[in-house]
Amino acid sequence: MLAAINQPAPPPQPLLVSWNITRLCNLACGHCYLDATRRRHGTREELDTAAARRIVGDVAALAPGAMLVFSGGEPLLRRDLATLVREAAAQGLAPVIGTNGTLLSERQARRLKEAGTAGVGISVDSADAAFHDRLRGVPGAWRAALRGAAAARRAGLALLLQVTLFEENRNDLAALADIAESLGAVALNFFFLVCTGRGATQTDLTSAAYEETLTRIVELQRTRPRLILRARCAPHLRRLLGLRAGDGDRHYAAWSSACLAGRGYFRITARGEVTPCPYIPMIIGNLATDSLREIWERHPQLLRLRTELPAGKCGDCDFRYSCGGCRARAFARCGDLLAEDPNCAYVRSSDAQPEPPVTPPAHRELDWEPGARALLERIPAFVRATVKARLEERAAREGRGCITLEFMRECRPPFDFVGRAFGRHLPPEAAIHGDIANGGDR
Question: Is the dihedral of CA 144, 145, 147, 151 positive or negative?
Fold first, then answer.
């Protein structure tokens, strides 16, 4: 193991929390990381409404304004879902539903919208109904998912489509983008399988196929400027984009470096257990007995993720901070969160040096004109601090002494996921929302 990155810093604030509120599911997906069950009724291990509401409060206290993804199993099978969404919204969180979409009617979508849901992530794994239905284990699942997606849009919910990539469907990227655009989706997330749960029996892409598919996603984004495309469990995308730690471009937020597990992201299970991410089945606490703040701020495995470099070639790479490899895949293959990512085919050239740590620029207080400050306050809390920091960094680089409305509009990206999700016209790097909105289901 390499030396620690730097001296311990204050714990980061979580940006995203994924919560498997139930293990019940109406489908039988062969790659399910949760190994969800098709029982008709909840189990004794599932948290009741009162306990779940207490956890919402714990999350809001630890991570004010964070995105809270209600996932499963199938979250629509929880009768109290709208109650939990309403509680989350009332406490200032941004609730999102990760669903297979097959049970989502327009009436239910309107109810969730009224409760405060910001958006839904729906799984559509192919342009071919037969492949999707075979993968999901139920005939007709593909058509039902598309009906659910259309119902979400008619109800005014922001829509994200989720795709888990296999050798059989990785050539469907453009056709899936067509479907996403036809449905009015704001984002299309491509998940690279991490072999956990029932997914442990599935075949992951080869390293060469992984690299080729990422290259196709980069090219596809260039031809679809109005659709946010993201590769999940694939931090290697930053290397293909040539983005170093702290760098960004008009299509990829600067902050989104490396794996978020345990650094800006954690998962809660249906029993109230906490893990670093949905695809790392390492239980680091249980909210029935442990303080969420204590887990997040003090657990040794989370501190490792935040302060240590990965081992092997990941730790010696010239993108070791920009990318750093997928920690879930390292754990699945090697049993160690800080092992090298076994799926990466990249080899650092002999003349390239390991990437140095990022040195934050000296902070400089800038003035904000009243109109700019008012617009900043309209940005959802879970991205507001990051948007503010990025604007101030850019203004400082350009020698500006005051942030104006005009400057904010100059910085606006080509798409505005947050604005479309919340019904607002919002500025600059608010598209960061699209970087963290996994939707919670794959």
Answer: positive
Q: What is the DSSP string of 199-257?
A: GGGSPPPPHHHHHHHHHHHHHHHHH-TTSEEEEET-TTHHHHHTPPTT--BTTB-TT--
In this prediction the pTM is 0.85
Rg (CA), the chain: 21
Give the helix/strand (H/E) hosting 133.
helix 129-136
Distance of CA 105 to the CA centre of its chain: 25
Angstrom distance (rounded) from CA 323 to CA 326 = 8
* Residue 211 token pair: 């690299």
**How far, rounded to the nearest angstrom, does the alpha carbon of residue 280 sit from its chain's CA centroid?**
14
Strands (DSSP E) along 332-436, which ranges? 367-368, 402-403
Average pLDDT, the chain: 84
Which among 223, 117, 125 is positioned nearest to 170, based on CA atoms?
125
pLDDT in tens, 53-85: 999 999 999 999 899 999 989 999 999 999 999
Contact at 8 Å (CB) between 267 and 277? Answer: yes
